[in-house]
Amino acid sequence: MAEAKEKPKRARLGGxxxxxxxxxDILDELQRDLMQEKWDLVSxxxxxxxxxxxxxxxxxxxxxPLDTPEDxxxxxxxxxxxxxxxxxxxxxxxxxxxxALDEGYLAYSDMALHxxxxxxxxxxYTYYNANSINNEDIYKGFExxxxxANQKKDPPLVRDLVVLTKGPDMGKTGIVIGIREEDGGVMTxxxxxxxxxxxxxxxxxEIRVVPLKWVGKRLGEQEPDDVFLIxxxxxxxxxxxxxxxxxxxxx
Length: 251
Hints:
By secondary structure, this protein is an alpha+beta fold. The protein has two domains: about 15-120, Four Helix Bundle (Hemerythrin (Met), subunit A) (Up-down Bundle); about 135-225, SH3 type barrels (Roll). Helix content is about 40%, strand content about 10%. The protein contains seven helices and five strands; from the N terminus they run αααααααβββββ. A five-stranded antiparallel β-sheet has the order 4-3-2-1-5. Helix 1 packs across helix 4 (about 55-65) and helix 1 (about 15-35) runs antiparallel to helix 6. The longest helix is centred in the first third of the chain and has 30 residues, at about 70-100. The chain is globular and about 50 Å long.
């Protein structure tokens, strides 16, 4: 009697998921420094992020190691997101060299989006993905409970704290990290998209790309986005931040 063929085993991931998530922490610090126009600090991030290339490669090959169509397709999808992520890192470096804030915002928002997609595809979210839940159904009849500025007279801009006013994520809050033209479309007030970094949930912050007209500025006094609460080490102290190395201080 022929022995049953042993089922291929997937590799153990060890600390790889934690290392991948560190990139998310670095992106939070980058958001803070970019939005505060700390160009001397922003310029250091591309090199630091490039150091994670082997980590992405190792995780991709470890989480989907089998020679099956499903694993092959998953590896291709993950590698695509990594490629787009690092292409945006190059754009950030160029924007930083010119201190071009709008270009920097676009590059950063693309980085955040493709990193988010990588987390989703790699199964790195630590909670149930509620994409199947349509919040518009929950808010049906209670749309007026959402309070936000007039979207035509006071449209949201990058850095604004916002609430999503339509769509499956209706009612969720976050911050605008980029505003861009719809793919292949002509730039008009009705065709622009907002890249929104949702408020933190169970340690992670998902990214949404939605029509700009679905986004409203929150009104009243608001707590700052949590990236602005991340402490920055004083370079003069000689200390090194856990995530971003301090720059030499010559002042």
